Amino acid sequence: MGAVEVTAFLTHLAVGRDVASSTQNQARAALVFLYTHVLEQPLPWLDEVVRAKARERLPVVLTTSEVRALLNEMSGTMGLLASLLYGTGMRVLEGLRLRVQDVEFSRREISVRAGKGGKDRVTVLPENLMLPLQQQLAEARALHAKDLSEGFGAVWLPNALAEKYPSAPKAWGWQWVFPGRDRSIDPRSGLERRHHLLPDGLQKAMRTAAKRADINKPCSPHILRHSFATHLLQSGQDIRTVQELLGHADVSTTMIYTHVLNRGGRGVVSPLDRI
Fold first, then answer.
1. Do 240 and 252 meet the contact criterion of CB atoms below 8 Å apart?
2. What is the residue-wise DSSP string for 149-187?
3. How far is CA 75 from CA 48, 70, 83, 100, 244, in A?
4. Mind listing the pLDDT tens digit for each residue in 4-15?
């Protein structure tokens, strides 16, 4: 295919099939890779392609009563994880990748390392989760001690820290707060290690809990982050503070949560309610 065919295909995606901009961008990136790195034929004319328009979507947010009902239907590790995501505003992988040294009980804060964009930030540790998290750490420590006794216990470390500090992988502070049930082979090194829990279990637990709580909204773990931000703003918290807790680079990203701050559409009282 040449310029005419490729342009026609990408334009058809945007105009004929009305796909999302991300779908067209994915197809465009695949073609650029094919022609640039495989066929060695650059595509400078791609700028003339009709681009699919990005749609602005408002986040789905649970009410406080829906959050309460959802969490009441969850228990154990998955219930603690869901409560932690709602109470801190962390993304699901940020919560799963927490290490022991990232939880500071005395200052009631959690350090989020290498979040989206590789940025670090600090968020709040809810007082209601102090005891459950301490119990979770006690269970994780017992599991770590078992691994050490069996000749394992080393955890993966980022940025080649394991080479710089050889004893760090087995140190308690670097262990996962939410370790997996079983050890597995690390495909990067071939070593047998204990990884952190995967998102699948939490996603399944939340879907089941939402069904039991009769919540008709799509309840993925990320909805808890949206609800955290919205409920903080509803309670009068400063938007700059919420921005820092969420780790947004620009306050305009945080502004999307202000759509539910007032009653009704943009706080307008419908004329029907005045009759």
1. no
2. HTT------STTHHHHSTTGGGSGGGSBSSB-SS-EE-T
3. 54, 10, 10, 21, 30
4. 788 788 878 877
Active site residue ranges: 91, 116, 222, 225, 248, 257
Number of helical (H) and strand (E) elements in the chain, helices listed first: 11, 5
Q: What are phi and psi of 42, to 5 degrees?
A: -55, 155
Q: Dihedrals φ, ψ of 124, to 5°?
A: -80, 145
Residue with tokens 């119990």: 135
Residues 6+ apart with CB under 8 A from 189: 156
CA 93, CA 84: separation in Å to the nearest integer? 12
| Residue from 171, 189, 170, 193 nearest 180 by CA | 193
pLDDT tens digit string along 91-132? 999 999 999 999 999 999 999 998 888 889 999 999 999 999
CA 13 – CA 49 distance, rounded (Å): 10
Q: E-assigned strands of 39-191?
A: 103-104, 109-112, 121-124, 184-185
- Residues ≥6 apart with Cβ < 8 Å to 221: 82, 85, 92, 199, 202, 203, 206
Sequence-ordered list of residues with C-beta below 8 angstroms from that of 19, at least 6 positions apart, any chain: 13, 52
Assessment of whether the complete model's pTM goes beyond 0.90: no
Rounded Cα distance, 246 and 88, in Å: 8
The Cα–Cα gap between 87 and 75 comes to 16
